[in-house]
Amino acid sequence: MKVLFITSTRLGDGILSTGLLDHILREYPSAKVTVACGWLPVSIFEGFPNVERIIEMKKKKCHGHWIDLWKAVVGTKWDMVVDLRDSAVSRLIFAKKRYIFSKHIDQTKHKAVQAAQVMKLTGVPAPKLYFTGTQKVVADNLIPEGSPVIAVGPSANWIGKTWPAERFIEVIAWLTSAEGLFPDARVAVFAAPGEEEQARPVLESVPAARRIDGIAKGTPGEVAASIARCNFYIGNDSGLMHAAAAAGVPTLGLFGPSYPHLYAPYGDHCAIAQTPETFDQLIDFEGYSAKTLDKTLMDTLQTSQVIDIIKNNFKGVKSATDIHVKEATQAPSG
């Protein structure tokens, strides 16, 4: 069975689509899937046991990347096409079944729910990650077995949705205190290349012996595999937050000028902390421009609020002598 899976160019949206890919793996364990996506999420799909090919779509003028994709897939007779991009490609190739994102999808629902609607599923398959052997080795080296690890994502691709570094530092200090959930835990700080300035002060606030530097290191797949070895994740709304949730790590996402009803970390092991103001209220001021904004818009989310939410939602998350290493699930037989 040949399946073409067309998904996002963005990391977070790509991760949120992995629930469908995992559904296909379980419903059609012998299927061979070709994934078409942007360059950033490529490594996220490399560990899936049903993925035999990944087509990296490089954006070109005049929609040339879609023409390139059509040329790459038109010669195959596909049993199924799942197109989360509503592209012409999925309509201009042979396919026995087509599941295409359309205007009939309820776009007020969470992105994981929207993905389930594309395939007309009665339930919502949760996003899930699988890791390659190489990705696991990188993760093992960065986070060796030992005391519990708190993963922190204090950066984002837009300054407006970054919680102040000093508040991350305050929450980490509480989490690792005698009264916190993980006394004396190690702290791993992650950030994408270009976001080092936001993340470095948080890392440097942690005692050197308990510091793990994951800033601007590795592919998204390697970073996700490293986060999967952690006991808890706290971070801004970003692709790393979705990676933590999809890896099964208890996850707290921090939201301000973004939409949690669409992009909250997905799963019953997740929670959010949110500014009192909505996205629209936060950007409703004279002179606002997303391109020229040079400050956070999340000042009104207080440290005490975040700590209370952690206490109320993650009280059962207890530290262990050794970290719990989450291995990729094996492909179903059949």
Structure description:
With 334 residues, this protein is an alpha/beta fold. It has two domains: 2-118, Glycogen Phosphorylase B (Rossmann fold); 133-313, 3-Layer(aba) Sandwich (Rossmann fold), CATH 3.40.50.2000. Helix content is 31%, strand content 19%. The protein contains 13 helices and eleven strands. The protein has a six-stranded parallel beta sheet with strand order 8-7-6-9-10-11, with helices on both faces. Helix 7 links the parallel strand 6 and strand 7. Helix 6 crosses helix 9, helix 7 packs parallel to helix 8 and helix 7 packs across helix 13. The longest helix has 11 residues, at 165-175. 45% of the residues are buried. The model is unreliable at 319-334 (pLDDT under 50).
Helix fraction, binned, reads 25-40%
Number of strands: 11
Rg calc: 20 Å
Terminal-residue CA separation:
13 Å
Secondary-structure topology with pairs:
Blueprint lengths: L1 E5 L4 H6 L1 H10 L4 E7 L3 H4 L5 E7 L6 H10 L4 E6 L11 E6 L10 H8 L14 H10 L6 E5 L11 H11 L10 E6 L4 H9 L6 E5 L4 H8 L4 E5 L2 H8 L4 E5 L4 H4 L6 E5 L4 H4 L20 H11 L21
Parallel strand pairs: 1-2, 1-4, 2-3, 4-5, 6-7, 6-9, 7-8, 9-10, 10-11
Helix pairs in contact: 6-9, 7-8, 7-13
